[in-house]
Amino acid sequence: MARRPLPRILSSGSASITRSREIARTAADNATDVLHPLITVTRGMRLLAGAGRQKWTATPRDRRGHVLFLVAACVLAVALIPYGPLLALISVMGAAAWRGRDRTPARTGPDEAGTARLQALYEALVPHFSVPDDPAPLFSHGGDWEKAFGTSYVFDADGRLTRLQVTYPAYFTDGDPAARSRVEQVLHAKSGRGREYHFAWDEESNQLLMTVLPPLPTTIAAQRFVTAPGETVLGFTDADAVRRTVPVEDGDVTRDASPVIWRTGGRSTEPHLLVVGHPGSGTTTLMRSLALQALQQGDVLVVEGGGTGEYGFLAGRDGVLAVERGLAGALATLEWAAHETERRLIAANRARQSGHPEPEDIGRPLWILLDRPSALGHLAAADGRQDPQELLRVPLRHGRAAGVTVLVAEQFDSLHALDETVRTHTRARVVLGPADRDEVEAVLGAQPHTTPTPDVPPGRGYTRLGGGPVLRLQVPATPDPYDDATSEAHRTAVLDLLPGGAPAVEAVQEALPEPEPEPEIVSTHKDRLIGAPATAER
């Protein structure tokens, strides 16, 4: 059967119909734009009328007469004053326009990517925050994440979480460190690696607050810090972790920073310090920083077990009693320090018994810096001599009463070689460099409330003074001024802190090796800088 052709009106009129629709739509849009003020005022008048109707309905019947009398009085007053009706009309139209304006509600929830991330995080926490016999579980597979997270979440520009508050069930064992650690690992992995997170557990409210910590500044160099006698700045931490600030020079500006203050002396509860880290983590930098601060008020003995000569710039300075690298010199220096501690104890005891003040020669603090004692212990064992750590027992046990402070720096791979006396009496601890939570806990005795990152700058780590909290730490930049890789600003900052006997900056620059020195010249220069140890005189 042949197909019957369509009527002409249907075949030829489709284009005109489409064109007519476009014209009608354009006309409607133009009319909407032209009549938009009228539409806005009309909408506002309707809203004002509805609000007035609700107000009239809510007014008690015995007060409606008073309201009508007040309205009539206002209308009469407006009618009698010049231009009153016109001003009233303008006011009503303005109020209607303001009330009827377009108020698109702001988006309060996350976008699709944020919702997916929160749902994935919620599903990952289900095994940790749920039990099979819970009749109304807060966490369940396929459940609603808004019940657990609410609106306490913040995303950064890249769509990653920077703040999240989790409400967990009351039966969760939030007092168990292992259970806490598992939850923190899940949050860390799902929120994005490479950042440092802080976890605050509120056991009373069953809430966990996770926040992303900004990196600590690494631009603070060695300088004179505003501290009281007996106070030493280990480094700087978060602003909300301590209640004290000190002015520091950060580049070309001066600002307030939050220091970690370590108190030494007779009233200190942590008179000795242990620093642990991996190679290149900044343990020697911290020891140099503490030595420069100690020279402002005391004498310093330096015993370097690594033999790298990174304390050579201290040799021959006022207040530096010795800088030793060899085994024989280290044993002799530490033996003198033990006898000096005993002498100070005896002199102080005699002065107290006789009712006299302490002699001046025992009032100046004595600092003993021992870097890498395990290396010296290995040499002593091979040579059949006494371990240098055994000579530290007297300064460690009686140093607080005698004004003697001991600083020990060691690496993680040789931590087992530390003497039990060193472990017991060094209650101020510092861990520098990349370290996991177990390594930090092995040194500090407690896990940090943050997630350590694998890549950290030198001098970054954690500290704990006695039984206090674990704090983040950034050590002031204190490089070796005789190292040709040290910048001019850092070299000048370190040399300016040295006491009398320091050469000028120009002399130090001349003493530095040339870019391509001859072997004989390098050997002669090193022997001159860090050759024979200084004699321990008083």
TrEMBL record:
The chain crosses the membrane at residues 67-98. Residues 257-441 form the FtsK domain. InterPro entries: FtsK_dom, P-loop_NTPase. Residues 511-538 are annotated as: Disordered. The keyword ATP-binding applies. ATP binds at residues 277-284. This is FtsK domain-containing protein. It comes from [Kitasatospora] papulosa.
